[in-house]
Amino acid sequence: MMAVRPPVCDFGAKAPDFALPDPDGRLFSLAQIAGPKGTLVMFICNHCPYVQAVIDRIQRDAAELQALGIGVVAISANDVAEYPQDAPEHMKAEALRHGFSFPYLYDESQDVARVYGAECTPDFFGYNDRLELQYRGRLDASGRTPGDPGAKRELFEAMAQIARTGQGPQDQTASIGCSIKWKTQ
């Protein structure tokens, strides 16, 4: 499996709206997710080794960011016909297993992933309170295996800065992960 690196942050780009279901069919919109201090939109999936290497760190950072007023959501957009382990019933089990404190939504049409420009899992989009993109970087230095437990928490620190100042750091390292599994048209 080839690793993909998304482009760097397009500062100020507006967060595209969405309305997506969780595995139980409840719809969530961007307005419902957005936090008073910012919003983190993550594209993840169940089967990706890059996501699995950091999933507990994602949950840890998400919970701490939510306490700072950052709204958090995860979206899975993979083609479940080819990757059935990413189907909604498995997403629900994954969220329960890791104690997700945020909604985990399913983008069956892949339209939301396309409009965001998501390229890999994990792919992180950090917005300020005006829903302007301020961070498009990695969680930390982890790859297919978890990084050092003391690794700099790049995503957390960037989003905490956004919560305080409305602006993300200028120096950002792109995330790395498996490509989004696009449906064949």
Automatic annotation (TrEMBL):
One of its GO terms (molecular function) is antioxidant activity. Residues 9-164 form the Thioredoxin domain. It comes from the Bacteria. Pfam families: AhpC-TSA. InterPro entries: AhpC/TSA (IPR000866), PRX-like1 (IPR047262), Thioredoxin-like_sf (IPR036249), Thioredoxin_domain (IPR013766). PROSITE patterns: THIOREDOXIN_2. PANTHER family: OS07G0260300 PROTEIN, THIOREDOXIN-DEPENDENT PEROXIREDOXIN. This is Redoxin domain-containing protein. The lineage of its organism: Bacteria, Pseudomonadati, Pseudomonadota, Alphaproteobacteria, Rhodobacterales.
